[in-house]
Fold this protein.
Amino acid sequence: MAFQAERLKNQEIAGGASESRAGAFWDRMKEYPDRWGGFLHEVRVEMRQVTWPSRHDVITTTFVVIVAVAFFGVFFFVVDSTVSRLLTQLFSLFKH
């Protein structure tokens, strides 16, 4: 945004002459490293503000997730097996 404002200011100083497409392209290419550096700086600033979990929190949360996945895996296996068995018996009842 600041680069665009600076470019417009430079155009006004130069008498409002519009830049050629090739010139505008090369200007954008010259600005790219500065924009990339600004982006990385903002990322570093934001990463400093992140509150990272402690090792104990990560281990505890991982354990809870593993237990929950195992529980629901067994639960759905039992439900699926029961429904399958009931449907098989129901179909065999009407088979004859």
